[in-house]
Amino acid sequence: MGLGKAAEIADKTMEETARKVLALRQRLHSRITEKIEYVRLNGHPEKRLPNTLNISFRNVDASSLLNKLKDKIAFSLGATCHDKERSLSPVLKAMGVEEDYGFGAVRLSLGKFNTVEEIDFAVELLTEAVNSLLSAPRR
Question: How far apart are CA 50 and CA 39, in angstroms?
Fold first, then answer.
């Protein structure tokens, strides 16, 4: 009975939750593109899940970005590394994402409990981290 009731509640709130999360995702994407130059959306601009944003930062190594922010923001990498050899994600490659963007791919997911304040905070942290990586000397 508990599962049935939970499903009933979820069904009633699913559309409202999807709208809220979509608005947060749109804010996240627009704020990132306002503050960071050379950001690319990976995927269709409209036909995608409301809670997921997959973007690439040009000439940024996503692994380095993850290391800088691992204790502050949770996100996933959009490109893979194999042993010490870097390779572009086959999915991103099939989508036509160039290497200078592909290695900077990240996937950010949102949920119904996220807030506008958290989105704005995440954007500030991402902006600082990306700018820091872009200004660091390359090896």
Answer: 19
* CATH code of the domain made up of 2-135: 3.90.1150.10
H or E stretch at 51: none
Per-residue pLDDT reduced to its tens digit, 39-70: 999 999 999 999 999 999 999 999 999 999 99
Model confidence, pTM: 0.85
Catalytic residues: 81
- Residue ranges per domain, the chain? 2-135
> Helix 116-135 and helix 62-69: axis angle, to 10°?
120
